[in-house]
Design a protein that fits this description.
The protein is mainly α and 260 residues long. The protein contains 12 helices and no strands.
């Protein structure tokens, strides 16, 4: 039976070009969707953007009392703007597997088990609390920097429960699913096939860290990428890595919104 199933597999034709095309298409789609949403909503940089966009500057209570002029866009544009990015990442992986391979499950390990939930969450929480601390603690003894500054500029704009829900939806639900499918599915496998297992783990993790465009956070993001890639290699499915990503991002959001 195993031999029969194996014989039915088509030749895999996806590879590194699909990865780089997917990155380009995803970023272009993200820009197009965000520009379209902003234009359709009548928002303008420098115009009145609502309470959520200036909490970080004026404080929560003051923000809730009146509208102000602020160059930042309202917080709800953040997850909405990510729709294009996620669509590009997800569709690239799906199309590559469907037309140039043997499907998402077979090619990229697109599956999940109940046991993946506690395993992944535990790994993700450990990575955020322990691994990230170990990466930056030595440097913070000598340099004064806030590794969460870029993320804090976003979460400080959360002026309402709706804003917080949007952040949670985007960061804790959307990002783990679509980013794991693309980076630990297509990207990891493509580099593995080209240069071998360890090159796949390291290069896919470096790309994952780099595309976030946050130089200060790059070491932590790459470290998490390596952890997630090792989970995929160990269990041969994306489930544990997706839930690890959920745990990793969830702790970051909780810390920034409620504990910071």
């Amino acid at each position: 039976m195993a031999a029969d199933v194996q014989s039915k597999a088509r030749e895999i034709r996806w590879g590194l070009p699909d990865v780089f095309i997917g990155l380009a298409v995803s970023w272009a789609a993200a820009v197009v969707v965000l520009v379209a949403v902003v234009a359709a909503s009548g928002l303008e940089a420098g115009g009145a953007t609502g309470t959520g966009s200036y909490v970080g500057r004026y404080g929560l209570l003051d923000a809730l009392e009146e509208r102000r002029i602020d160059p930042a866009l309202p917080l709800w544009t953040l997850p909405v703007g990510q729709i294009g990015l996620w669509a590009g990442l997800g569709l690239t992986a799906a199309v590559s597997a469907a037309l140039r391979g043997n499907g998402l499950r077979r090619d990229f390990g697109w599956s999940m088990r109940v046991s993946d939930v506690p395993l992944g969450l535990a790994v993700g929480v450990f990575a955020q609390i322990v691994v990230v601390f170990l990466i930056y603690a030595p440097f913070q003894q000598f340099f004064d920097f806030d590794v969460s500054e870029a993320a804090r500029q976003i979460t400080d704009r959360a002026a309402s429960p709706g804003d917080i829900a949007l952040v949670m939806l985007g960061v804790v639900v959307g990002a783990p699913v679509f980013e794991e499918l693309f980076f630990r599915g297509l990207t990891l496998r493509a580099f593995e096939r080209k240069w071998g297992a360890w090159a796949g783990v390291l290069v896919s993790s470096a790309i994952f860290g780099a595309v976030h465009l946050q130089p200060l956070q790059f070491p932590a993001l790459m470290a998490f990428g390596i952890i997630a890639a090792l989970l995929v290699r160990r269990y041969q499915r994306l489930g544990p890595a997706i839930w690890a990503h959920v745990g990793f991002n969830l702790i970051a959001v909780i810390n920034l919104i409620w504990l910071a």
